[in-house]
Fold:
Amino acid sequence: MVEVPELPGCMADDETYDEAVKAFAVIKEWIETAKQLGREIPEPKPKLLYA
Structure:
């Protein structure tokens, strides 16, 4: 299972990790649905830097 923490409820799953990542078309669908419903779309969070 792959989850997008910034988009509540946005997740994808499949038989393998690689297939689940390819299924990330759900991000686009999540954003399109949020726009149709008039919901706020969160700004992307910056990448964390690790030392």
Observations:
- The first strand starts at residue 2 and ends at 3.
